Structures are given as structure tokens and as C-alpha cells.
């Protein structure tokens, strides 16, 4: 039922965050929030959608938590707190939940999984598929992560060292997005990352990297309908049908960037993505932004992409010159970039051999098939 799905998107995080704050019990909070959604699926088709769907879900979840706590003979003070919980969680509760799930004491994998389960409400089975493990294994990992939060006394609050902790939160959202955006990923995870970034941008309007990350997600995801051919293999940017791109998402991202100062790597990456958003790519501008990104984030992958941008902006020779200084990038991608530059330089035989070697260096799947097509 679409009304339940919409209410879940709007209210699930608020409900879970409030119940965690009041009860201190992560599993109870998640179970009661899910029970409320199940009740909505049962009752709303029969009784009609309530005037305040989020408030209805909060009330049902709260009452369910009160029943469970009462049966467990929890102290009366806890019950009184629950009985007073009539309104949805204030924004700070959602921030507390996000920063707790993304605490640096947890492994990066645990942070992503816990964010998916508790903040986004993704079923454990779906998370398990994304991590290529069984549902039972993922359940154990989530349980260990919650236990570590309790045992280590990780505080359920927005940290005072926000400048130090926020990049870690954004990195979790970025990894979540890529798990949905990659060729073998869960597409719904990209949508969840966008939703969470949008929520975080609303809660933290004075942190420029947050809306910048949202703009980056929107620009990347706008190309989702043009990134695969009929066989599901990747189509390179220069060969995509741009009429299939989501122009509304692009317009929103460009508007965000127009009012957001450039203060970090996500803003720079978003501006690079925006260079591709027109009828054709502005490669000269992209190369300039990559120069700036390489100064801020001098990783092998950034340097590799910088060589690509310069190769398109200033000719294959310029790209090959930069490529020669790249160290540490994955072999398959290095070979693929050189192959593309050699092909555009007219060295067809050399390029064909490089594409073949690049295909052999990546795992079997869509990327390998796409490289072999280039051969």
C-alpha cells in the first residue's frame, strides 16, 4: 500500500530514534516500529488512512513498546516516560541515531549495516544480500554492533566534536550509495542514501558538505536509466543516451550547488558531476575541478580520473602524461584508461590489446563484458 510506504519513509527514523532514546533498547525500538508498519498494512485498507499517518504509527509503536516493557516488569519511571511520548521525535533524536550508528568505534561495515537497519529500516535479509552473507550471519553482526554500543558506553547524542565526526557519517552514506549504484549493487540502497542525505541536509543546514553530498548523489543517480545496455552491461558516459537522464534531479542538484560554498571533497566531486549534466560534457571545467580535488584528496583513483579528464579536455597525450605518474590504482582500471586514451589517439591495435588485458584483470561480470566489447 503506497500510503504505508510513504509514511514509513517519512516517519520510521523518527519513531525508531525516539524509542531508542526512551527505552535504550535498539531491538525493541526496531521491532515496535516494524510492528506499527505491519498494523498499518492490515488496518488502513479497511479503516482508511488516518489524517496524521506519522502520528498514528508513533502511537501504535509507543503502545506496543509500553506493552512489552510492562510485561517485562520494567521500572515504573520508564513506563511513565513512555506514556508521555505523544509527539514524534524532535530532529535531534534523528541526529543522535545517525551519529550513534556511524560511531568510529564500530567497523565501517557495521556502521553501514546498522544505518541501513536502524535508520533506514531496511530488512536484515536485504542487507545480507548486499553484503553477500546469510541473513543469520547479518543478524549476528547487527547484534554484535548493538552490543558494542551498549558495552562500550557509546553515548546516544550528537557529538560535540562535530567537525571531526561528520566526515565519518558522510563516508557511511557515500558507501551506502555506491553499494546501490555499482553494477552488482542493491539499487534501492542508492535511493535510501539519497533520502538519508536529504534528511541530514534538513537537520544540518549549516554544514556545506552535507547538501554537497546530496547534490553529488542526485547527479550520479540521474544517469541510472542510461548506465546499462539491454544485457545489463555498463555504458561509458560518452556513449550514454542523455535523453534518458533525470533532468529534474539534475536541476535540483545544480540549484543546491548554486547556494552551497565549496568547502570539501564532496562539493568538488559534485561540481565535477555537474560538468557532465548538459547536452555534452564540459571537459575543460571537469579537468580544472579534478586538479582541485587532487590537491584536497590525492588518492590513486582521483589521479586516474584526473588523467581521463585531461585526456578529454586537452588531448590523449596530456592524459597519458598524467597517467604515467599514477601509482597504486587498480590494474584493471589503469589498463582501461590507457586503452581508451590510446584508442582516441588512433593506436587501435595497442588499445585492443590493453582492453583485453584490462578485462582479464577485473572480476567476471558486467565490467569485464563491457571491456571485451571495446576490444
Explain what you see.
It is a single chain. By secondary structure, the chain is mostly helical. Among the domains are: 88 residues; 92 residues, Arc Repressor Mutant, subunit A (Orthogonal Bundle). It is 71% helix and 0% strand. Helix 14 packs antiparallel against helix 15. The longest helix is centred in the N-terminal third of the chain and has 22 residues. The termini are far apart. The mean pLDDT is 88. One of its GO terms (biological process) is DNA-templated transcription initiation. InterPro entries: DUF6596, RNA_pol_sigma70_r2, RNA_pol_sigma70_r4_t2, RNA_pol_sigma_r2, RNA_pol_sigma_r3/r4-like.
Per-chain topology:
Layout: H1 2-23, H2 26-47, H3 53-71, H4 76-83, H5 91-101, H6 108-119, H7 124-131, H8 135-151, H9 162-181, H10 187-203, H11 209-221, H12 247-258, H13 265-274, H14 283-296, H15 300-314, H16 316-323, H17 331-344, H18 348-361, H19 366-374
Helix pairs in contact: 1-2, 1-3, 1-5, 2-3, 3-4, 5-6, 6-8, 6-9, 7-8, 9-10, 9-11, 10-11, 11-12, 11-13, 12-13, 13-14, 14-15, 15-16, 15-17, 16-17, 17-18, 18-19
